[in-house]
Amino acid sequence: MSGVASVAAHPHRTEEPPLSSHLPAQARGSSVPFDDRGLARFNTLPAELAEAVLLQCCGSPRWAQQVAAHRPYPDAGALRAAADEASYDLSDSDLVGALAEEPPAELADGAPYAARLALDAARAEYERTFGHPFVVCLDGHPPEERAGQLMAAIRRRMGLEVEEERAISAEELRRLALARLADLTDRLASCEGVSGAESGRFARAG
Asked: 0.85 cut: is pTM over it?
């Protein structure tokens, strides 16, 4: 799967545009660095809200609970390490659930109609074969490379055995979670506060 924090209620919180209730798109574009202010705010979120925002990074409740439970993090490196450890600790059922929550890989706005049709067909064939959405992390790839990278990755991985592809999907999910965590600290740094009532702005769908 070109892919992202006290944050209790704040009397002077600046209004922010609504955030999607879905997992962010599979990472694309250049990497976003972890924001120290966002990390500090993430450290002070109530546990339930922290888990809700973490579910935007990875759709596994176990992953979100584990990362939230190890706060406070002294720096971005510690958060990355905890996120990696939580990714590696996912059981088969956790991984299946997280993969099922992934949004489909999409082309950039303005992509040719023929390219969209080809991608839709390739994704459908992939899901029939492996039983879950195609997941790839394109963090660091510019938009103009997105269509080619997506199609090449799907074609390459369609020929793999189920267990081999599951392992690759788990690694792509781990990379996506890290990219989304960086985006999350950036978004949280731009907020002066996030109340429990607003947690739906961050929670994943479903």
From this structure: no
| pLDDT tens track for 71-94 | 999 999 999 999 999 999 999 999
Cα separation, 181 vs 183, in Å, equals 5
H/E run at residue 154: helix 146-158
Q: How far apart are alpha carbons 130 and 39 in whole angstroms?
A: 36
Residue 184 CA neighbour count, 13 Å, CB half: 32
The residue type at 137: C
Per residue in 81-116, is it b (16+ CB within 10 Å) or e — as a string?
A: ebbeebbeebeeebbebbbebbbebbbeeeeeeebe
pLDDT in tens, 26-81: 755 445 678 889 999 999 999 999 999 999 999 999 999 999 999 999 999 999 99
